[in-house]
Amino acid sequence: KMDDDDDIPQLSSHTLAALQEFYLEQQQREGMKTSQGFNQYSIGSIEEDWQLSQFWYSDETALCLAKEAVLAAGKGGRIACVSAPSVYQKLKEQDGEDFSVRILEYDRRFSVYGEEFIFYDYNHPLDLPENLLPHSFDIVIADPPYLSEECLQKTAETIKYLTKGKILLCTGAVMEEQAAKHLGVKMCKFIPKHSRNLANEFRCYVNYASGLD
Predict the structure, then answer these.
(1) Is residue 114 helix, strand or coil?
(2) Which of 13, 79, 92, 148 is the most exposed place for a label (fewest CB within 10 A)?
(3) How is 152-190 classified by DSSP, letter by letter?
């Protein structure tokens, strides 16, 4: 078994400089998009921020998870996306569908979504606005930002507070036991893909009969 330290990517100063440059370009691109009246809900309108451990799903995966959420939530259902912004963006593209959605996210760039955005830090799992009532969501989709038991455990507190019952968790395959322990969810056959390949094998877990098997 590898040392735990091996999991933490150490960036060289050269890589960091390249990343800084990449971010500057991103910001310039963001600025251009906004001025062109870019569709704020489309994937990529807010680019992933690696420093926040954000990795967007591929278009197909985000759409598949969004559709699953709509089905699971049912007509007029309420969906919460916890640290899963690319699924939220796909849900926003499903115009005319009968559901409502909230995004709980640490990245304040998502505040462009107005009242649907709720600032969320998994270190304070129940530090939520008063109008976010317990057990008021038909399904919660969550993608904890880090593959650690601590992060999963804290995110689990939030999920359990929000959901009426249904949970769709996306996290690493290595988290299978902890996911079962903290949320009672089982791995699905569906394999989520990311727009950039991640080193860790990623899986979906649910606690209800889903369309992901």
Answers:
(1) helix
(2) 13
(3) HHHHHHHHHHHEEEEEEEEEEGGGHHHHHHHH--EE-S-
CA 109 – CA 182 distance, rounded (Å): 30
- In single-letter form, the type of residue at position 81 comes to C
Q: Is 206 left (phi over 0), alpha (psi -120 to 50) or beta?
A: beta
Instruction: Look up residue 195 and give its two tokens.
Output: 């727009």
pTM equals 0.76
At 7-59, the pLDDT tens digits run: 555 666 666 666 666 666 666 655 544 444 444 444 455 555 544 445 678 88
Start-to-end CA span in the chain (Å): 31
Sort residue 184 into left (φ over 0), alpha (ψ -120 to 50) or beta. Answer: left
The domains located in the chain, with CATH, are 50-206 (3.40.50.150)
